[in-house]
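Lab channel / #folding
Pinned by the channel admin:
"Please post every new chain as: sequence first, then the structure tokens as a reply. Keep commentary short and put observations after the output so the thread stays searchable."

First post following the new format, from NK:
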Amino acid sequence: MSIRVGFVGLGNIGRPMARRLVASGLATAVHDVSEEPVAELVREGAAAAGSPRQLAAAADVIGVCVRDDADVRAVAYGEEGLLAGAARGAVIALHSTILPSTVREVAAAAAARGVGVVDACITGGAANAAAGKLTYIVGGDPEHVERCRPVFETSAAKIVHTGPLGTGAATKLCNNLMTYLAWLSAYESLHLARAAGLSEKTLEEVTTANGNLTEPMRAFLGVHKAPEETRRSSGFQAMLRGFTTLAEKDLAVTLAFAREVGVALPGTALASQLMARVYGLDDPGRR
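Reply from TO:
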């Protein structure tokens, strides 16, 4: 029997993930608070669901790719939430960057209704989502993970089962910490080199040769190599504001998780205050 899929949250990464579900031939229902991405997916072959509850009632595997913990709860709970419509045996895959404790909370509520949950965080960005090259970081019961695997494979280059429920979200937070501190180190190294009059090309040659500068870091530095006029343009600044807001949100969740497990992360705490500077956002109140 073919898998019926539901997908909630058609944002920057959720939309290309859902498009690949449709393109793969899986019966896919979609829902979002915005009408435009839903209409786009319907034109490509998806079915529109009027609520999370309606979507869940028609799905065996349900992907959730919304902004934060509060949005996950809003989608999962209530009379029109996923848990009100999901049938026994369905599995909900939480793709959002959220606290492991939130994953376990939702899973407990779902288990009472015979519904499974996995934390299936993703990394790779919108471009890799569109290309089917995401890395899935999945925590949960092996049976639930395997139930979801054919769905994940539509947009995955690699699927890593990290262990029990919550470990996917925890691993994603550790990954985010490493990513954003790498951006900080790349930016400040470039900033120092420019101030000292060094050759940027030579710096990149050295740091690439010794392994310090990775390809993702090099791509990030492209933000700082755009012409000044381009960087100051409203469209470019809007893009940087989006990057900055996401980084600040992700690092806030990481620090909240660190508090839950009793670990101090002073470097991460400082970095979380510097993301506007790191991305080059023109916002004095955030720099």
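NK: The CA atoms of residues 69 and 98 lie 5 Å apart.
TO: also worth noting, The chain has two domains: 4-164, 171-286.
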